[in-house]
Amino acid sequence: MTDQDDNAGPTRRSVLKAGIAASFLCATGLRPGEQQAQAQETARTAGAAAGNAATITPVSTHLRINAREVTLDLDPRTTLLDALRHQLALTGSKKGCDHGQCGACTVLINGRRINACLTLAVMHDGDEITTIEGLAEPGVLHPMQTAFVARDGFQCGYCTPGQICSAVGMLDEAEAGWPSHVSQDVTATTVELSDAEIRERMSGNLCRCAAYPNIVAAIRDVAEEA
């Protein structure tokens, strides 16, 4: 079939082609030839960028992870979470939102909790890092892990490593007298860990299964036994 028969007007196909061409011109402001030139320029720029990426020099980074000394040669753009999961096969820290909003990647750095997806590995040269794999002793769970099991503080379990690391860090912060957003007296040197305090201090860790009541109960158990 041709775009136009000898004895007929424009065919449906020719009308569609004309419509597409008109829409293309309206959307880009470029004629087909100009668009091709722009596409070639875009490809050239992308190729140059890829070439620049290939020349990035790895940075030697020394980390102490779960009481083990590790030295890695890292692309300086590597997040701590990706270094843990991809370079060291420590997959307990989960990649949830990858934007620091869910807390599934929480680890302890020098005893303080942090979202591993929001920090670069090279920023922690020489730091002490504890992941969920490093909390337990061989054959003995960490008290917080035991409490989560006893209280059934998890359902699908995806958020659980981050919840437990965050809970351990949170108890240390409370013990040090750090106030939270719901603390009545921000100058107090001791913190009474009410359910409201625990919920507020754990608010950076989301649980899609909504096991929150059991998580709070588990943390309260550990706080009371300490």
Automatic annotation (TrEMBL):
* Keywords, comma-separated and alphabetical: 2Fe-2S, Iron, Iron-sulfur, Metal-binding, Oxidoreductase
Q: Which SUPFAM superfamilies match?
A: 2Fe-2S ferredoxin-like, CO dehydrogenase ISP C-domain like
Segments forming domain 2Fe-2S ferredoxin-type: 61-135
Q: Which GO terms describe its molecular function?
A: 2 iron, 2 sulfur cluster binding; metal ion binding; oxidoreductase activity, acting on the aldehyde or oxo group of donors
Q: Does the keyword Iron apply?
A: yes
* The keyword Oxidoreductase is assigned to this record: yes
The family database entries (Pfam families) matched by this protein are listed as: Fer2 (PF00111), Fer2_2 (PF01799)
State the superkingdom: Bacteria
Spell out the protein name for this chain.
Answer: 2Fe-2S iron-sulfur cluster binding domain-containing protein
Record organism: Halomonas binhaiensis
